[in-house]
Amino acid sequence: MNFSHQLKKYREKEQLSQEELAEKIYVSRQTISKWENDKTYPDIHNLIALSILFDITLDELVKGDVEIMKSKISRQQWDFWVYSFTLFIVLTPLSFGPTMKYLGFKGMWIPLVLGSWMLFSCWMVERLKKRQNLKTYSQIISFMEQTKVDDEKVAEELKYHKVKNVVAGMVSGIVTLLLISISFFLFK
Fold first, then answer.
1. Most CB atoms within 10 A, among 64, 65, 148, 167?
2. Structural domain that includes position 10
3. 133 and 107 in one domain?
4. Of 63, 86, 107, which residue constitutes the final position of a domain?
5. One domain for residues 92 and 38
6. What's the pTM value of the predicted model, to 2 decimals?
7. Last residue of a domain, one of 63, 88, 113
8. Are both 123 and 177 inside the same structural domain?
9. Is there a contact between 87 and 120 (Cβ–Cβ < 8 Å)?
10. Which pLDDT score is estimated for 129?
11. What CATH number does residue 57 fall under?
């Protein structure tokens, strides 16, 4: 994170040792060391004390960290919902066979609940895609790998974006029917 570099820069600018800085804001020297080595992050009270001591704004002190934190949170949310969707897109169709064999139509609520969670996960993924302005597969991959997007590749992909979505929908429908068939075949 950027805060550790900012803290060290301003501490050295004021010609303070870690010990001296720690005394001024009433924390231990080890705490200052942990902040400068990205081991921990100060609470809001210590951030305010540091910004007052260095006579800078909070924004200057934590410059870049807020965006990094937002990106990290977005990435964690993305991972959770994508993995959730992937898991339930497989579990839902596979649950039909065992449910019908052991519970009959009374147990059809199980695939219904699994399918509902799968649809909710899909909706959350789409929401995150919209929030991050991700339209093409290369943009999604770049977001997941946190790399730069190749604009030429995106422009090329946008030409065939709708066709790819239709094909992906058809393929996922066929795979779902295949998984349901396998589930019924295994549990007949």
1. 65
2. 2-63
3. yes
4. 63
5. no
6. 0.61
7. 63
8. yes
9. no
10. 86
11. 1.10.260.40
Identity (one letter) of the amino acid at 23?
E
Tokens of 100: 């019908």
Structure tokens at 14: 């004021």
Please give the residue that has the higher pLDDT: either 75 or 102: 102
Looking at the 3D structure of the chain, how many domains does it have?
2
59 and 71 in a single domain? The answer is no
pLDDT tens-digit series, residues 30-71: 999 999 998 888 888 988 899 899 888 887 777 755 566 666
Q: How far is residue 24's CA from residue 65's CA, in Å, rounded to a whole number?
A: 24
